[in-house]
Amino acid sequence: MSELSADEAAELTGRLVALDVSAGARWAVGAALDAVRRAGPGPGIGPGPRPGDAAETGDPTRRAALAELFQVAAWITFDAERHDVSQRLSRRALDLARGGPDGPAAVEPLVLAVRSMQEEHLGRPAHSLRIASRVLSRTGLPGRVTAIFQVRAGRALARMGRGPQALRALHTAAELLTDAPTSRDPAWAWWFDRQELDGHHGLALAALHERETAAELLHRAAHAEGDGPAYRVLFAAELARVLARAGDWHETDTVVSALIGVVPTVGSVRALRAMAGAVRLVGHGHRVPRRTRDAADHLGRLLRAEADRDRPRGDSRAHPDRAPGQAEPGKDAVAPRGARRHVGGPGRSVRR
Fold this sequence. Notes:
Blueprint: H1 6-22, H2 25-39, H3 54-57, H4 60-79, H5 83-98, H6 108-121, H7 125-136, H8 143-159, H9 163-177, H10 194-207, H11 211-222, H12 233-246, H13 249-260, H14 269-283, H15 290-310
């Protein structure tokens, strides 16, 4: 196993970020797992570092670069719904980010932001809130970092049914976002913008059963002008689920029909699974118009076809309601032509 230098780790991280932003986790997960194997990953991924290794006691620049690499890989595996691997990678990123003599590396809050979101996603909002609250209790947080963790807290509180507290947290995040970024805000916070806030605000309101306003915010997030990271197709997928749950079949039909055209290019496995959830809701709905039911059936067939295409060779198990997964570990998936046309965006430094 080779030992990556700080520059090599940073180059790998940049390539992963560019691939994930433009195409998504579904196409980036193989490259992410290869990268962390090269870096000397932690338990469950590879041999891991030994006491005295340079990553543990040496150059702080290299340690910070490796922390960023593991953080990006943890994010990608999260969006690919590879949660056990993602959590191991984020623990490794935290070990590296916190292991230096000069205090935590700048990427440490980003690792925790992803962990907090992942806990909420997995149905553990109390754990999510605990992570967010601990970060928010720190003094001297930059404005963008505070706003991000207010969103994490708001999402968790909404999932727990604590509406007024959730809305206060989201309002605080919105106020902070009106301030221009400062030199204290970390470079990795580039993705936190109005579109991101609208999407998470909409998801929080959906958890609070305020579906009309949730749908408005998710629609705004899904149709914002300009390019954004590939995972933001999630907001359109969640919009379909909110509308179907509300029984608004006309609007559900509009959104589902639009999603049909992008399924093969979607790189977020979370988004694909949200689409599958919308399909199930239509299938179980009452007085669903034939047109809407046909559109949902079409979307469901496409999702199953993508799942079959993505399944590693030799895996004959059928998952009729499971959205597509990812390429075989250690092998890059090839993003289809047009993968950037609905979600494209430039590569950046360390991301969420």
